[in-house]
From TrEMBL:
It comes from the Bacteria. This is DUF1858 domain-containing protein. The lineage of its organism: Bacteria, Bacillati, Bacillota, Clostridia, Eubacteriales. SUPFAM superfamilies: SP0561-like (SSF140683). Residues 4-33 form the DUF1858 domain. InterPro entries: DUF1858, ScdA-like_N_sf.
């Protein structure tokens, strides 16, 4: 598994694991793509 750092882009996180999308939506980040 890839390491997530403070420099990792949200798009990269979603590419690595799309199941993280609900967490971003829950935090109010509705425009992810």
């Amino acid at each position: 598994m890839a390491a997530i750092t403070k420099d990792t882009l949200i798009g990269d996180i979603l590419t690595l694991d799309s199941t993280t999308a609900p967490y971003f939506l829950e935090m109010g980040m509705h425009c992810l793509g």
